[in-house]
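Chapter summary example.
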Amino acid sequence: MSPRDPEADARPGRLEVPKELLERYATSAPRYTSYPTAVDWEKDPGKAFDPEDYPARLAAAADARPDEALSLYTHVPYCAELCLFCGCNVQISRSDERRERYLGAVEAELARLEETGIGRRKVQQFHWGGGTPTSLSPSQLERLFRSITSRFDLVDGAEVSIEVDPRVTTHEQIGVLADLGFNRISMGIQDFDLEVQKAIKRVQSEELTRGVIDRAREKGMGSVNVDLIYGLPHQSRAGFADTVERVLDIRPERVALFHYAHVPWMKGHQAAMDVDAMPGAAEKLDIFSDAIAAFDAAGYVYLGLDHFALPDDELSLAAKDGTLHRNFMGYTTQRGREMISLGVSSIGEIDGVYVQNIANEPEYVTLANERGFATYRGHDMSAEDELRRDVILELMCNGRIGRPAIEARHGIDFGETFALELEELEPLVADGLLTVSSEELRLTAIGQILMRNVAAVFDRYMRERKARGQSGSGTFSKTL
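The structure predicted for these 480 residues follows.
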């Protein structure tokens, strides 16, 4: 990626967007943690992946790139209770026996991975997500960590991170995690307003949250990420501004400010949310714009879309020098890393192929124990997929697309290859979302907020969906 020009960076502050423009762009689009998106993998039959080929692709990746570091993700699906806003693959269970059975399946998956030789490659980025990984006991946390690191070596200075829920995470668990080598911790706050918390069934006090963060910092974890969500029932500009002020007092190294994705057709429990109490599109823009201004005034770097980081954080430095990347974990510094993923529903990328494990927990356990892997689908990337992913990632991570760099990297003429896209972008240019020249496409301050709308123009699967008369509203969340 080309480095950002600090002088040209959009620092949006307060945004004033005409209502008509707001309504036009409050549509549905992917978040582009991958391209093609997982829902589009089966849309190209010629690139469908045979799950039985997964071990062979791992072996090929081990032989072809033995010195390249990997990213490694582990999914722990268990939660003590279900939050109404949740869109993750979770299992509500307090059964220790069930967790033990699951860990055994992950270990069976690891043993099969070891046989392919992929463990010869070291790991640069190591992340546990969920669910709630700290639903595991201290001994189970250590068991899982040792099972993985006995087969994969971490490089010096590797990013070792975990998602926690302050409501179930003890100081003992934080101590165990720090002693094992975890150096980053991530947790959801969503909103500190009690009325909002009750509406989403996640009551979590500021005191409890601060306690976990303070303990992590005391134990030497050098980076804290918190997630906030706007668009939830009973949120208001004033109430959310108060939450942002309290978060700024905590001063986490990173903040993700997500727009609530209301997809009850995919996550049935979300139907219990009081949609009539949710802020409208105009108020959501005000909430988000206020937050951007507050984080900007507090010295945070706006990375784009919905992420912020302190100036000396690795993400901010990567954004400045043009090495910021995006994968299934969100924004990351690990551009180009192949990713091994363990556990139910987890998605990885290896040897030019996206792969996903089965999403049903009992089936995952059975498959992992019977054959050593639970892959059930995937997508073999085409040259066009690679090109369009590169363009979309440039936009999502860098706020611009350098035309000469894309041309040199892929051997194309940008104007000829993307003639239709450039024509479709003209209304977005007229609306002030981006500028287009012979050298680059660059997002404006408003375009940074609506970058998903811009990126979708380059998504051929979205184009095909629209050609079939499908808007994407039944598949993807709203952009605003």
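To summarize the output: The radius of gyration is 22 Å.
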